[in-house]
Amino acid sequence: MKTKISIFITLISLLFGATATFAQGTQAYFKKDGVTVFQTPISDIDSIVFKQTTKEEEGVVINGVRWATRNVGAHGTFVQNPEDYGEYYQFNKGTTDFLFDNDYNNSVYANSDSWLPANDPSPTGWRIPRLDEIQKLFDADNVTWGWIDNNGITGNKFTDKATGNFIFLPAAGFRYNFDGALYLAGFDGYYWSSMVLDAYNAYGLYFGYGDANWWNDGGRCYGFSVRPVAE
């Protein structure tokens, strides 16, 4: 492996060396096991960065599902800390701009039987979990859960029995569809799945003090939290 890296670095130094010249349109090919995984014109490359993947970016595996360690903040980003609440999203909406809806206007929220990938606010490489993936958190043979205080923030901790891997979900409450006001923060947590029940409700994850489960009566027009899983 070290030999391959040394050769690669030598080639890169040649690419950007002052004396190096290339014909117009010369391409750079990045391959794995002989298969091209990325290709780009050399003229488009101005630098190459090697980055060590962090644990937060890798997530943790619990009962076979790789979960992010933090909630989604603004579209395409994670919050800084596991205990940060993050943003609140209405079902199948990729923005935090609320469509205030006094009658659960299903013309707004029932345009799909699942959360469309184009509207998923999760960062690249992540997505909103399916119902079956949420249900794996409540497999008592493989996972334990419990209400805890994490750096002064209350929420629920889910732990893989075999590995000790865990995620903390803050009790971020929810935003009401009438006015966007925040309710029950610090007392309850509401997290979306990508699957709907009917024209008005979708599946998700709920927990409070001493109580946690998946549920099927989350009004699509409410603003709930998003905790993604790896694609």
Could you characterize what this model shows?
This protein has about 230 residues and is mostly beta strands. The chain has two domains: about 1-45, no CATH class; about 55-230, no CATH class. It has four helices and 14 strands. The strands form six sheets. It has a three-stranded antiparallel β-sheet with strand order 6-7-8, with no helix packed on it. The two termini are about 30 Å apart.
Helix proportion of residues, in percent? 10-25%
Give the oligomeric state: single chain
Report the mean per-residue pLDDT as an integer: 83
Classify the secondary structure makeup into a structural class.
mainly beta
Helix-strand pattern: HEEHEEHEHEEEEEEEEE
Roughly what fraction of the amino acids lie in strands?
25-35%
**Distance between the ends:** 28 Å
Low-confidence stretches: 1-11
* Spatial arrangement of strands, main beta sheet: 6-7-8
Q: Which term fits the overall shape? A: globular
The total of helices stands at: 4
Sheet of most strands: 3 strands, antiparallel
CA-based gyration radius? 22 Å
Tally of individual domains: 2
Number of strands: 14
